[in-house]
Design goal:
Number of domains: 2
Helix content: 40-55%
Number of helices: 7
Strand order of the largest sheet: 1-4-7
Order of helices and strands: HHHHHEEHEHEEEE
Pfam families: Phe_tRNA-synt_N, tRNA-synt_2d
Radius of gyration: 42 Å
Keywords: Aminoacyl-tRNA synthetase, ATP-binding, Ligase, Nucleotide-binding, Protein biosynthesis
CATH superfamily of the largest domain: Bira Bifunctional Protein, Domain 2
Protein name: Phenylalanine--tRNA ligase
GO molecular function: ATP binding; phenylalanine-tRNA ligase activity; tRNA binding
CATH class of the largest domain: Alpha Beta
CATH architecture of the largest domain: 2-Layer Sandwich
Strand content: 5-15%
Shape: elongated
CATH topology of the largest domain: BirA Bifunctional Protein, domain 2
Number of strands: 7
Structural class: alpha+beta
Organism: Pseudodonghicola xiamenensis
Largest sheet: 3 strands, mixed
């Protein structure tokens, strides 16, 4: 056992890379390694011999495994040091330019139109997209029998049975913003009311009606 210990500890210390170290591990403590074969011989020994040889073989196996682990760590540290010496990165170089998105064409046009009217003295007015039936239709003199108020063109908000609150809709135009602005500020006023509106989308095919926001705007000088 002393000869095996000296033999493999020397080989482990002289190993130059992980491949050589793995070959030493297989030769020493692998399934067919010398130490493993010695441990298989324990069954042929007398109980007295096993009491002496068993602990000694286990201690030898543990010592070889510890030496293998330490050498593997040393080889990894050496490889890292060599890599750090050979590879370098100039951290003062500028980073790669990041790609930035752009505004949607509708938003671009809206901003340009808003800027044009701002130069003419108009201000931007905004209002809710969920609007009362009164602001969306009645205040604009759209009568109750008008086709625009039909459910096939307008999206009405759901109300529970017995709910007596005024009906609400997804606004079909931005004209309700004019009503709210005149209620708050009176007249005369110079405003533009760009914003999203909702109308039933129907094509030539038989497709379900669904709310799609579209762009709308009104420019009023009242």
């Amino acid at each position: 056992m002393d000869d095996l210990k000296a033999k493999y500890l020397t080989q482990i210390a002289d190993a130059g890379d992980e491949a050589a170290l793995e070959a030493i591990r297989l030769a020493a403590v692998g399934k067919k390694g010398e130490v493993s074969l010695k441990m298989r011989e324990l069954g042929k020994m007398s109980p007295e011999e096993r009491q002496v040889a068993g602990p000694a073989l286990n201690a030898l196996k543990d010592e070889i495994n510890s030496a293998l682990s330490a050498k593997k760590s040393a080889l990894a540290d050496k490889a890292l040091d060599e890599r750090l010496r050979s590879e370098w990165l100039d951290v003062t170089l500028p980073s790669r330019p990041a790609r930035h998105g752009t505004l949607h064409p509708v938003n671009q046009v809206t901003e340009e139109v808003t800027a044009i009217f701002a130069e003419m003295g108009f201000s931007v007015a905004e209002g809710p997209r969920v609007e009362t039936d009164w602001h969306n239709f009645d205040a604009l003199n759209i009568p109750g029998h008008h086709p625009a108020r039909a459910e096939m063109d307008t999206f009405y908000m759901h109300r529970a049975p017995g709910d007596t609150r005024p009906a609400h809709v997804l606004r079909t135009h931005t004209s309700p913003v004019q009503i709210r602005s005149m209620e708050a500020q009176g007249a005369p006023l110079r405003i533009i009311c760009p914003g999203g509106v909702y109308r039933a989308s129907r094509g030539w095919r038989s497709t379900p009606i669904s709310p799609w926001p579209t762009s709308s705007g009104c420019w009023k000088s009242s």
